[in-house]
């Protein structure tokens, strides 16, 4: 103890005697700051950060479209995972920038917070909030080349990791205008430099919907992966709503479209109700930036929608007596896209996830209040259908409330007993505990034996559970397959979900790597997505990845999680001798493993593989859940036929 105290005194003395002066302040020159802390600028150095580089460059082209100077953008993944973005806008300025004495083209890509988005009339509205897009991409690229078509000439500048390798040079003549940016992400900065076509395609399609009339070509030029799609939607966000609802049954044929402006701000809203959907999908954007956490524009919509529908219900005689509907009732089955444009967008948080401008709440509220009332007056049949659906939702919600109260009373009488099949853990701090939801009693038995009971709880499930995609909330409460999950987690569900009461901060779905296991996992994820969405939003939900193969040579046993890993391990165990026998068997299910194998391969935190379930794309998640678990059979059959051959490992 005396030795520890002596060491502590030495540390404290060192800290006190070392002066904290100006020499301690490190000034990072140029773009060094970006390379030192890339996560501050693009969120992460994982695949999401890699794709964010493309978004930054495309956003600059979109800003030209917003300003009315660009109507064609091409995004290409090139052979070596470089990316080329080309637009037909005005072209980045090439004249000398007064503060630096250098060509503006060089400044834009080498100086942070340099651009046409800080006043001076360059752009009225812009998605790029910080003016760091081009320079950040440059800093995080192994190389970058920019060519500008302007003034009848082609100007070129080249960079490497943020530094200029070729100053601006005129390399030819041209009869068009626009900017071409080609860059190769730096492998020193990213966990992966391989682009996913579908991720970029989805984002570009979104931008095409949001900017009616702009054509965006998304292309993959990599050998063996060649594909491209030209996206152009004159209907704008109306077509976005139709796209989201493509596998649903609309309650009314036409998409309701509303728009309005005040000063330099404008808002447009497109919405449509679906008769076979019990959830709401609201997708919002500010200056083409997706705002997954909503904000003032969404608040304005929700307030106006509830007020208008209640007023119309009374005026049209659809409501009887004191009947009225809540905001949740009004939004059941609603698909809505909101897009606002404004000069000084205030986003909350580094990731621009939520819009903070209160004037947009006022504008959206005014637009919806005025235009929706007018639409309902002109389309009474649609108005009646919407109100009847809201009334039905209200009655179902009341039934669900009674069911919740019955469960609460029952739990109170039974002392809030946990499910009989739950094998709980000893730790009581939710941040340190994990719940394995296991398919089947036999696998559940092995999991109970193999687990670390200090922090791992096991809940076996048996049989197929309720498909919540086809059920209202009142059918969920008391369901014998779902109730154990609800009770074990302890946080309630739907509007009653309370994260502070959650008993485990890791909820791990452990199912077989077969069709039945995939079905169980999809049913559970549908349930979490619809009724416990904060679980997924906060990153609490995981899928366990069990091994597919067991390899045995003598007394040595190893496992593999893919065909490729199986072949590599097999070759390694043979030691280059093809005559050495290695027995390879495929695990048919979790119940086939003894408890030691299950612990070593799927439950031991030091060795297991977990896949976190994320909410990166709420629109895609909603569409997939609706497609796989909804009422319509034909779209599901088409999806299976198109993707059956891709389903090699159902755990990924």
What does this structure look like?
By secondary structure, the protein is an alpha+beta fold. The chain folds into three domains: 32-231, Histidine kinase-like ATPase, C-terminal domain (Heat Shock Protein 90, 2-Layer Sandwich); 237-398, Ribosomal Protein S5, domain 2 (2-Layer Sandwich); 418-546 and 611-646, Rossmann fold (3-Layer(aba) Sandwich). Helix 4 packs antiparallel against helix 6 and helix 11 packs across helix 12. The radius of gyration is 29 Å and the shape is flat.
Number of domains: 3
CATH fold assignment of the largest domain: Heat Shock Protein 90
CATH superfamily of the largest domain: Histidine kinase-like ATPase, C-terminal domain
**Count of beta strands:** 25
Distance between the termini: 51 Å
Indicate the CATH class of the largest domain: Alpha Beta
Largest beta sheet: what is the strand line-up? 7-6-5-8-2-1-9-10
What does the secondary structure layout of this molecule look like, with pairings?
Elements: H1 2-17, H2 32-36, H3 39-42, H4 47-66, E1 72-77, E2 83-87, E3 96-97, E4 102-103, H5 104-110, H6 133-139, E5 141-150, E6 153-160, E7 163-173, E8 178-185, H7 197-210, E9 215-220, E10 227-231, H8 237-244, E11 256-262, E12 265-273, E13 281-286, E14 289-290, H9 296-315, H10 327-331, E15 334-341, E16 347-348, E17 354-355, H11 358-378, H12 380-413, E18 434-439, H13 441-450, E19 456-461, H14 473-476, H15 483-489, E20 506-510, H16 515-531, H17 533-537, E21 541-544, E22 549-553, E23 556-560, H18 563-574, E24 583-586, H19 595-603, E25 610-612, H20 618-629, H21 633-643
Parallel strand pairs: 1-9, 13-15, 18-19, 18-20, 20-21
Antiparallel strand pairs: 1-2, 2-8, 3-4, 5-6, 5-8, 6-7, 9-10, 11-12, 12-15, 13-14, 16-17, 21-25, 22-23, 22-24
């Amino acid at each position: 103890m005396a030795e520890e105290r002596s060491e502590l005194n030495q540390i404290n003395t060192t800290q006190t005697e070392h002066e904290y002066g100006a020499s301690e302040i490190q000034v990072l020159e140029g773009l060094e700051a970006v390379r030192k802390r890339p996560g501050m600028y693009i969120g992460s150095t994982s695949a999401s950060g890699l794709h964010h580089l493309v978004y930054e460059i495309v956003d600059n082209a979109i800003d030209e479209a917003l300003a009315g100077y660009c109507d064609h953008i091409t995004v290409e993944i090139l052979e070596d995972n470089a990316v080329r973005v080309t637009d037909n806008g005005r072209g980045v300025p090439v004249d000398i920038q007064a503060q630096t004495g250098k060509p503006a083209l060089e400044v834009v890509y080498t100086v942070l917070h340099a651009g046409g988005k800080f006043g001076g009339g360059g752009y009225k509205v812009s998605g790029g909030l910080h003016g760091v897009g081009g320079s950040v991409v440059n800093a995080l690229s192994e190389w970058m080349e920019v060519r500008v078509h302007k003034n009848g000439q082609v100007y070129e500048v080249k960079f490497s990791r943020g530094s200029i390798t070729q100053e601006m040079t005129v390399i030819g003549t041209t009869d068009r205008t626009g900017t071409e940016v080609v860059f190769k992400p730096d492998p020193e900065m990213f966990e992966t430099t391989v682009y996913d076509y579908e991720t970029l395609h989805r984002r570009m399609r979104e931008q095409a919907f949001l900017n009616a009339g702009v054509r965006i070509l998304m292309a993959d030029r990599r050998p063996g992966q060649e594909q491209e799609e030209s996206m152009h939607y004159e209907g704008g966000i109306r077509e976005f709503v139709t796209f989201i609802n493509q596998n649903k049954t609309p309650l009314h044929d036409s998409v309701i479209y509303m728009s309005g402006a005040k000063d330099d701000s404008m808002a447009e809203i497109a919405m449509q109700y679906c008769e076979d959907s019990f959830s709401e999908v609201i997708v919002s954007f500010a200056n083409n930036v997706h705002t997954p956490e909503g904000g003032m524009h969404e608040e304005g919509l929700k307030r106006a929608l509830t007020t208008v529908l209640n007023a119309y219900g009374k005026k049209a005689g659809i409501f009887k007596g004191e009947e009225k509907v809540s905001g949740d009732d009004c939004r059941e089955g609603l698909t809505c896209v909101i897009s606002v444009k404004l000069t000084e967008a205030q986003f909350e948080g580094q990731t621009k996830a939520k819009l903070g401008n209160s004037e947009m709440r006022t504008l959206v509220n005014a637009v919806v209040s005025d235009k929706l009332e007018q639409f309902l007056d002109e389309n009474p049949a649609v108005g009646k259908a919407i109100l009847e659906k809201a009334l039905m939702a209200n009655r179902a919600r009341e039934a669900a409330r009674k069911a919740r109260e019955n469960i609460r009373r029952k739990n109170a009488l039974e002392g809030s007993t946990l499910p009989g099949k739950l094998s709980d853990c000893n730790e009581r701090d939710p941040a340190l505990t994990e719940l394995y939801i296991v398919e089947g009693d036999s696998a559940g038995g092995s999991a109970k034996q193999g687990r670390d009971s200090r922090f791992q709880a096991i809940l076996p499930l048996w049989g197929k559970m309720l498909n919540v995609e086809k059920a209202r909330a009142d059918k969920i409460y008391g369901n014998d397959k779902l109730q154990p999950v609800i009770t074990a987690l302890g946080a309630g569900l739907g509007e009653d979900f309370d994260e502070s009461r959650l008993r485990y901060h890791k909820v791990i779905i452990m199912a077989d790597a077969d069709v039945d296991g995939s079905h169980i996992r999809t049913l559970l994820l549908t349930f979490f997505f619809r009724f416990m969405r904060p679980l997924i939003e906060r990153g609490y939900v995981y899928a366990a990845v069990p091994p597919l193969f067991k390899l045995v040579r003598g007394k040595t046993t190893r496992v593999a999680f893919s065909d490729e890993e199986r072949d590599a391990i097999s070759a390694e165990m043979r030691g280059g001798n093809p005559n050495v026998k290695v027995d390879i068997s495929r695990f048919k299910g979790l119940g086939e493993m003894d408890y030691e194998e299950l612990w070593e391969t799927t439950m031991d935190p030091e060795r297991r593989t977990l896949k976190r379930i994320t909410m990166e794309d709420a629109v895609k998640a909603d569409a997939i859940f609706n497609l796989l678990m909804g009422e319509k059979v034909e779209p599901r059959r088409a999806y299976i036929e198109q993707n059956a051959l891709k389903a090699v490992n159902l755990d990924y």
